[in-house]
Amino acid sequence: MTLVQLEYLVAVDTHRHFATAAEHCFVTQPTLSMQLQKLEEELGVQVFDRSRVPVRPTELGKDIIAQARVVLAESKKIQEMVQNQQQELSGELRIGVIPTLAPYLIPLFVTSFLEKHPQVRVVVQELLTDQIVEKLNHELLDVGLLVTPLDNKSIKELPLFYEAFVAYINPKHPLAQHPRIEAGQLDMSELWVLNEGHCFRSQVLNICNRGGGGGSDSSGHLDYKSGSLETLKRIVESQHGLTLLPELSVLEMPEEKQKLVHPFEEPQPLREVSLVVHRSFLKKKLIEALRQEIIDSVPDAIKLRKKEQVVAVK
Questions:
Q1: Per the database record, which ranges form the HTH lysR-type domain (predicted)?
Q2: CATH of 162-269, one of 3.40.190.10, 3.40.630.30, 3.30.1330.60, 3.30.70.120
């Protein structure tokens, strides 16, 4: 049994396809298949059920693959010990970030981070929360930037800051006359929200439910399903009604649009933004540098805020 064979084993489990796994491992499919067959012969068990499409591990195979991931992670720690002695950070850092954070948070820190660490290659993927967690578990990402808590035992959450929700209200709406609003004033029939699958949608609905806001989550005769906060902003500006937005998304707005932004009365509803890693994560020094850079880049008004009323994701 070799580490290379274990890498092939994990690759097939991750991609559930022999050709894709071989491509990921930079070998030919016959080479990968031959090595896995040798491993199965040595163990005397069948790790994968090749009769199913996509290929899946057998029940015993699941346990073997889980242990293989542990062995590979421990072996990589030896390389990391050597790298941590180097003065300059290097390597690839794969980051998954949710869509309601990506366009507002990434520009705040990525330039300064790369300037400080020119030997680091940063790869950013915009994904939903469940996708990020899955990729962390399959070692396809090193770190995630998302909203917590998630109550998932396979990951570790490192809170970064607490971001307030604000209302974005059409000037003709009655609530536009209020400098600050309360959750109880929200009417779901006038509220534009994101598609199903976005944790931000769940949080918005939770805010409305806590405030006792009634109605259904649709606005007039237009039924628009959006995955973009920027689209919701444009709809509010051009149509009617209101939407809720995260604080970072309104910081750079021009002055005329800032008039549409209405904070909540204290205590404001907040969301906890965290850096999330797998429980047995690697690249600790690199990820700590990323964590510190993000905290340093966030505006002081957000950075100094303490956990108050974090809205549950689910």
A1: 1-58
A2: 3.40.190.10
